[in-house]
């Protein structure tokens, strides 16, 4: 049985450069979500499951920065990604 990351197979990819707010760079359901997840896995990009957060992020247009209301939730995800990947955030 295939593991479902976020029902109903919804995925959102964010890009964070350390200086601006994270941007939505990919999103999709079904087959597109599977492709986003597969690409992330191929590139050792950490995956995080949060059904409520992914639903909110999926409503943001591609290329847009996340709204201020989601900063804390996304910051926790970024911190999680740094933790499991062994990276250190850049200090500014």
UniProtKB/TrEMBL annotation:
The protein's name: Flagellar biosynthetic protein FlhB
Cellular-component GO terms for this entry: plasma membrane
Any matching Pfam family: Bac_export_2
SUPFAM superfamilies, per database record: EscU C-terminal domain-like (SSF160544)
GO terms, biological process: protein secretion
PANTHER family cross-referenced by the UniProt entry: FLAGELLAR BIOSYNTHETIC PROTEIN FLHB
Family named by the database record: Belongs to the type III secretion exporter family.
Keywords: Bacterial flagellum protein export, Cell projection, Cilium, Flagellum, Protein transport, Transport
InterPro entries from the UniProt entry: T3SS_substrate_exporter (IPR006135), T3SS_substrate_exporter_C (IPR029025)
Biological role: Required for formation of the rod structure in the basal body of the flagellar apparatus. Together with FliI and FliH, may constitute the export apparatus of flagellin.
Superkingdom of this protein's organism: Bacteria
Species for this entry: Methylocucumis oryzae
């Amino acid at each position: 049985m295939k593991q479902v990351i976020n029902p109903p197979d919804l995925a959102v990819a964010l890009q964070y450069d350390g200086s601006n707010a994270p941007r939505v760079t990919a999103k999709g359901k079904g087959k597109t979500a599977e492709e986003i997840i597969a690409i992330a896995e191929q590139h050792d990009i950490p995956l995080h499951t949060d059904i409520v957060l992914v639903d909110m992020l999926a409503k943001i247009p591609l290329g847009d920065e996340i709204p201020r209301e989601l900063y804390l939730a996304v910051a926790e995800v970024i911190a999680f990604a740094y933790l499991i990947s062994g990276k250190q955030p850049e200090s500014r």
